[in-house]
Amino acid sequence: MTADSRWIDIDTVDGKLQGYLSLPPTGKGPGILLFQEIFGVNAHIRGVADLYAKAGYVVLAPDLFWRSQARVELGYVDPDWSRGVELMQQIDIAKTLADAAAASKVLRSLAEVTGKIAAIGYCFGGQLAYLSAAQGLVDGAVAYYGGGIQNKLDQAAKVTVPILFHYGEQDSHIPPAAVEQVQASFAGRDNCWARSSYQQKASALALGRTLQFLVNKV
Questions:
Q1: Nearest to 148 by CA among 166, 169, 163, 130
Q2: Rounded to whole angstroms, how far apart are CA atoms 62 and 78?
Q3: How many domains does the chain have?
Q4: How do residues 104-159 score in pLDDT, each as one tens digit?
Q5: DSSP strand E in 87-212: where?
Q6: In terms of Cα–Cα distance, which of 28, 15, 25 is closest to 63?
Q7: Which residues contact 65 (CB under 8 A, 6 or more apart)?
Q8: DSSP H helical segments within 174-218, as ranges?
Q9: pLDDT by residue (tens digit) across 11-30?
Q10: Which of 21, 73, 159, 172 could link 42 by a cystine bridge, Cβ 3.0 to 4.6 Å?
Q11: Domain containing 201: what range?
Q12: What is the SS3 assignment for 66?
C-alpha cells in the first residue's frame, strides 16, 4: 500500500467485504470503481488503482471473491491460474452485482469523491463494468477485454451511460466474432471502441484513450 491507500469495509446484505481504496495526491476527485480480473485484488490491480489515483481519481477496488476466499492474491500461471478460474466459477453473478452496488454506494458517499463515478474492469471485471453500466450503478464504464459480454447482450439496451470497450487483436480468449457481436449491439450508440494487441505501446494507447474518455464522457 501507499501512503494514500488503505483497505476499507463495504457493508453488504451478506456481511462485510473489503475494498482497496487509493486516493489522488490532491485527496479528492471523481471516482472509479475498479473491477479485478480472476486473480483477485492482487499487486497488479492495486498498482492499477494507484495509477488512476495519480491521474486524479478516487479509486475503489472491491474484493469480489470474498465469499469464497477473502483477499485472495494470485499470480498468472498454474496453479494460481486454475484457482482463479475455480473462484470465478463459484461466483453468483446476482450477488456479485449486489456487491458492486454496495461498493458504488460507498464510493459515492466518500467525502473525497467530488464528481461522478465510472467503472473500469479487466477481463472478468470488464464484464462487471458493462453490467454495472446496465444496472445504472455508475455514470460511465470502460471494459478492457471483457470476457463473456457477448453472452449477456440482452443487457445492452439497458446501458444509457457512455461506455468504452477495449479489445486486443491478438487475444486468444475472445474471438473476433464475439467482438463483432458486441459492436453490433452498440451500433449507433454513445460508445467508443478500441482494438489493439496486448503490448506496451498498445497498453499505453489504451490508457490514454481511457483517460480521455473519462474526462470527456463521465
A1: 130
A2: 24
A3: 1
A4: 999 999 999 999 999 999 999 999 999 999 999 999 999 998 888 999 999 999 99
A5: 113-122, 141-144, 163-167, 191-195
A6: 15
A7: 36, 40, 72, 87, 90, 91
A8: 176-185, 200-217
A9: 999 999 999 999 999 999 99
A10: 73
A11: 5-217
A12: coil
DSSP state of 194: E
Strand residues in 123-188 grouped as ranges (E):
141-144, 163-167
Encoded amino acid at 89, one letter: Q
Q: Please tell me the total number of residues recorded for the chain in this structure.
A: 218
Yes or no: say if 182 and 160 are a contact pair by the CB < 8 Å rule: no
Cell of 151: 453472452
Residue 162's nearest CA partner among 105, 195, 124, 209 is 209
The amino acid present at 60, given as its one-letter code, is L
- Cell numbers 491521474 correspond to what residue? 55
Asked if residue 64 lies in contact with residue 99, where contact means CB atoms within 8 angstroms, the answer is yes
Domain of 26, CATH number, reads 3.40.50.1820
